[in-house]
């Protein structure tokens, strides 16, 4: 890792910009989403040592987000969701209505986002339901532990337990690991640790605008600061999650890990995404490690897409499902 890789976003001195014009090169639905300006930069976070204040802050934000997640859910008749416990970890299983019961059904471990501290409980499955209903497999949505009570490595410990259960249940060739934003961080870190512990890789990895560099050292943390109307810097939250560990630790910022031996990987970002640099740097590093990696960058898309109900969001989900299906078929054809 070079000194440039380790450079912090503090040194890059990001400058907040005025709201940019909305391009006509995207759908009308996407244009409406982009017309909402970014919130003014602020520091609403509690003191890092104030656990009670952080717990209240998480509860408040999850309450705000829940109606948005509920509004974006697919039709109730298109899926069933059940709560379960896997190796001591809370988990939700999403079963698409079109999917018959079968012993060889693929398993998708879909790791929710939320800046590594939000999105627990039922929100863990709601965020990924729209993608899950289109899969020809069962999606597991782990409700992994998070700060302030459970900082690193609690989330990774939980996901390792779920991953072990998945590969034991159906074999690694029938498992796909995916995650968006903070979930992308954890999905990549999970495979780094799984490789270190001698576990086989899954059929594929899907990283949607992944938060793979908690040092925030990439160029887009400057160029897209204030351009992305969804996300701002998460440096304070990153420190809360790391709990004193070095932010360049490969299990915390998997961009800095040895990625050799990773499975075929799908990566997505947008030209207005604050995490664009995270995604393109991860893509290049995977290629340098000899990994098959497919990069999709969407015009004018901010962090996390256009809200889930635009043609661009539909196109992204279709592209990811196509990649998952192709890689599952490839893995099934290989000797076990």
How would you sum up this structure, described in words?
This protein is of the alpha/beta class. The protein has one domain (54-333): Rossmann fold (3-Layer(aba) Sandwich), CATH 3.40.50.1820. It contains 12 helices and 8 strands. Strands 1-2-4-3-5-6-7-8 form an 8-stranded mixed beta sheet, with helices on both faces. Helix 7 (154-170) crosses helix 8. The relative contact order is 0.15.
Task: Name its key features.
336 residues, alpha/beta, Rossmann fold, globular, disordered N terminus
The mean pLDDT is: 92
- Give the percentage of residues in beta strands: 5-15%
Give the N-terminus to C-terminus distance in angstroms.
Answer: 34 Å
Instruction: Name the poorly predicted regions.
Output: 1-15
Major sheet description: 8 strands, mixed
Structural class of the helix and strand makeup?
A: alpha/beta
The helix fraction, in percent, is 25-40%
Q: Number of DSSP helices?
A: 12
How many strands?
8
**CATH C-level label:** Alpha Beta
Q: Give the overall silhouette.
A: globular
Q: Could you tell me the radius of gyration in angstroms? A: 19 Å
Topology order in helix (H) and strand (E) letters: HHHHEEEHHEHEHEHHEHEH
CATH topology: Rossmann fold
Write the layout of secondary structure elements.
Layout: H1 3-6, H2 9-12, H3 28-34, H4 51-71, E1 79-86, E2 89-96, E3 107-111, H5 123-126, H6 129-132, E4 138-142, H7 154-170, E5 175-180, H8 182-196, E6 204-208, H9 220-223, H10 235-242, E7 265-270, H11 276-288, E8 293-298, H12 311-333
Parallel strand pairs: 3-4, 3-5, 5-6, 6-7, 7-8
Antiparallel strand pairs: 1-2, 2-4
Helix pairs in contact: 7-8
């Amino acid at each position: 890792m070079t000194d440039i890789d380790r450079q912090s976003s503090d040194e890059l001195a990001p400058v907040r910009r005025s709201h940019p014009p909305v391009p006509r090169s995207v759908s009308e639905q996407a244009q409406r989403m982009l017309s909402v300006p970014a919130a003014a930069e602020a520091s609403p976070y509690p003191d890092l040592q104030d656990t009670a204040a952080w717990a209240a802050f998480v509860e408040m934000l999850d309450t705000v987000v829940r109606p948005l997640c509920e509004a974006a859910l697919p039709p109730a008749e298109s899926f069933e969701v059940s709560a379960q416990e896997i190796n001591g970890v809370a988990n939700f299983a999403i079963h698409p209505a079109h999917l018959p019961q079968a012993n060889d059904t693929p398993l998708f471990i879909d790791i929710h986002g939320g800046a590594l501290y939000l999105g627990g409980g039922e929100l863990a499955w709601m965020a990924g339901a729209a993608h899950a209903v289109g899969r020809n497999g069962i999606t597991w949505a782990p409700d992994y532990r998070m700060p302030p009570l459970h900082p690193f490595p609690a989330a990774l410990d939980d996901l390792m337990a779920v991953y072990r259960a998945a590969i034991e249940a159906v074999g690694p060739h029938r498992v796909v690991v995916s995650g968006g934003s903070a979930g992308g961080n954890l999905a990549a870190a999970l495979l780094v640790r799984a490789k270190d512990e001698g576990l086989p890789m899954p059929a594929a990895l899907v990283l949607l605008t992944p938060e793979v560099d908690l040092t925030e050292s990439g160029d887009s943390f400057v160029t897209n600061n204030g351009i992305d109307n969804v996300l701002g810097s998460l440096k304070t939250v990153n420190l809360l999650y790391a709990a004193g560990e070095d932010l360049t630790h490969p299990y915390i910022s998997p961009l800095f890990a040895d990625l050799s031996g990773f499975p075929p990987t799908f990566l997505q970002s947008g030209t207005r995404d604050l995490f664009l640099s995270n995604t393109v740097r991860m893509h290049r590093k995977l290629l340098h490690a000899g990994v098959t990696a497919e990069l999709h960058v969407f015009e004018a898309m901010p962090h996390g897409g256009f809200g889930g109900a635009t043609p661009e969001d539909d196109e992204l989900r279709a592209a990811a499902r196509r990649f998952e299906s192709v890689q599952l078929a490839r893995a099934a054809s290989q000797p076990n």
